Every structure is written in C-alpha cells, then in structure tokens.
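re the bet — no i am not wrong, look at it urself. input seq straight from the record:
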Amino acid sequence: MEFTLHQNLFSKAFVLDLPFCRVLLEDNCHYPWLILVPRRNNLRLLLDLTPSEEKCFNQELKWAQTTLLNEFKADHINVGAIGNKTPQLHIHVIGRFLKDPAWPNTVWDHKVKDLYTQDAKETVILKIKNRLNHLMQDKVC
C-alpha cells in the first residue's frame, strides 16, 4: 500500500525521504523546523512503531537534530509529537535560538509566523538535504 500523507501536512515543503520518514519543512523563517513523518499508514502514536521501525525512527531523529545543530547553529532543539489536530504520527524537530521571537516559550505559544521567501526556503531545504544525505551514509535501517 502506498504511503499517504495527512491533508493537514500538504502545505509543508517536501525536503526528502529518509529510509523510514518523510522530511518536511515548516514555513516559518524564525526557526529551522523539520517535521518527520514515518512513511507507514495508520500510525498515530510512537507506541505504534515496531521495534525495528523504532530503531530507524530514532536514528533519523538524531540525524534531524544533528542537522539543525550543525547547519543552523541552534542553541537548543525542541522535539514534539502532539497530534491533536493531525492524527497521523509526525514529529516536530525545531531549532531554537536564545534570541528567537518565542524564546524561552514554545513556538506554539508565539503567534508571529513569517514565511520564508522562495529563495530562502530553497536555500534552507538544500542545506538540510545535503546534511541529511551525508548523515545517511551511516545508514542503520
């Protein structure tokens, strides 16, 4: 069965497919903000992952965090799986900075959202793709 992305995630920019997860970019230029979506239908919770899927997911989550720390020099990383509005399992991985508009609160508490310009979005996506492709050389899945 082909993987189907939940309609609430359609507006996110596609970055690339990792061995287990699809990587999307949230369109908010204040934060490098990735969304990892396991490419398996009918997942709602992390508990739904099999042990081998969990191993792959954890590796890819580490790659996403490493990417945000190294490429964007984030001061901190927020990771969240909320799913109240979008029932498909997806994990937010957000690079945070001591001087970002929402610091020290969560990004969801901050209503200011400035979109990337098309050029800036393409540049960010390319940086993320390049780093993740490099990290995938240590493939575990």
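see?? Helices lie at 51-72, 118-135. told u. also The chain is about 30% helix and 20% strand. so pay up
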